[in-house]
Design brief:
The protein is of the alpha+beta class and 168 residues long. It has one domain (2-167). The protein contains 4 helices and 6 strands. The chain has helices at residues 2-29, 89-94, 128-140, 161-167, and strands spanning 38-46, 52-60, 66-71, 110-112, 115-121, 147-151. Strand 2 and strand 3 (66-71) form a beta hairpin. It is globular, with a radius of gyration of 18 Å.
């Protein structure tokens, strides 16, 4: 167990070092003195008795640390989750450990230098109710959304209509 904890700590430290390099390089490239924050899509793992893995978007602050994160709420069937997996225990035993992602459960706005950004990951743009419901919930909490930010890897979709949809 000690080896696992050490490996987790080393992985987190490596992530923060790379994040700090990204923030520093971005700051050096920009002609602004405003502090740089980075929004980046990546896997997010929550360590517990049974680890949870999310398709996520992280907000990296000036210090290279993760300030906040969003877990994709609307997962893609068979690509990010397998239906009925939790209902058929022996099926789960046939799959590699960690197969399947956990869905995020809520909207998570990011405050970036006073601008409230609402994250949206990939095909969540094709399911408009996801962003609409997030904006509605945040408004009910008294939070305004200034813009919706979509992070996607359109390399998966080549020249399909999905790329055009993401651009819209």
């Amino acid at each position: 167990m000690l080896d696992l904890r050490r490996a987790i700590g080393e992985s987190q430290q490596y992530f923060q070092q790379r994040s700090q390099l990204l923030v520093d390089a971005s700051q050096a490239t920009l002609a602004s003195s405003d502090p740089v924050q980075v929004l980046a899509g990546c896997g997010v793992m929550r360590y517990a008795a049974e680890p949870e893995v999310y398709c996520g978007l992280v907000q990296i602050g000036q210090d290279g640390g993760v300030q906040d994160w969003y877990g994709k709420n609307h997962l893609v069937m068979f690509g990010e989750y397998i239906p009925l997996l939790s209902s058929i225990p022996y099926l789960k035993d046939l799959l590699p450990p960690g197969m399947g992602l956990k869905a995020g459960s809520t909207a998570q706005p990011f405050d970036v230098n006073g601008v409230n950004l609402l994250p949206n990951i990939c095909l969540e743009t094709a399911v408009e109710r996801v962003a609409v419901n997030h904006v509605r919930k945040l408004r009910e909490q008294g939070l305004a959304v200034d813009a919706i930010v979509t992070v996607t890897n359109d390399g998966w979709f080549d020249r399909s209509s999905v790329v055009t949809h993401h651009l819209h």
